[in-house]
Amino acid sequence: MSTKAETHDSRLDVLKWIVVAILVFVGVYGNHHFAAESVLYRAVALVVLGLVAGFVALQTEKGKAFWSLLKEARIEIRKVVWPTRTETTQTTLIVVAVVLIMALILWGLDTLLGWIISKFIG
């Protein structure tokens, strides 16, 4: 019994994805076809088509899994301990200082090696 239900859901999912693809195609073609119309009208139409396509996509198994992933990610983001402004500034200054020091070391090494090579060649 569950195999029949899974096959039926799978067929419906394929149909839903076809509807999503058609909606996207209609949006792209309509935007091109009505290029002479106001950008506002085209933008509103694209937003509406996008919302409808998104709603249909969320009705599929993959869409439900994606929505679940977004909800779980939001929960995890709330658990993150973000650095304070002072910590961020200090870390940024350390990174800039290390980059400048490495740039000077590499510049000096390049100049030295260039000078050595020019003595052998010249």
Question: How would you describe the overall organization of this protein?
Answer:
- The chain is mainly α and 122 residues long.
- It has helices at residues 2-33, 39-58, 61-79, 85-121.
- Helix 1 runs antiparallel to helix 2 (39-58).
- The model has no long low-confidence stretch (mean pLDDT 92).
Summarize the structure.
The protein is mainly α. The protein has four helices and no strands.
Biggest β-sheet strands, sense, barrel: none
- Count of helical regions: 4
Overall radius of gyration: 28 Å
Helix content: over 70%
How would you sum up the global shape?
elongated
Rounded mean pLDDT score: 92
Question: β content, as a range?
Answer: under 5%
What pattern of helices and strands is seen along the backbone? HHHH
User: Which class best fits the helix and strand makeup?
Assistant: mainly alpha
Q: Which residues sit in consecutive blocks of at least 5 with pLDDT less than 50? A: none
**Strand segment tally:** 0
Terminus-to-terminus distance: 86 Å
Index terms:
0% strand, elongated, 89% helix, 122 residues, 4 helices, mainly alpha
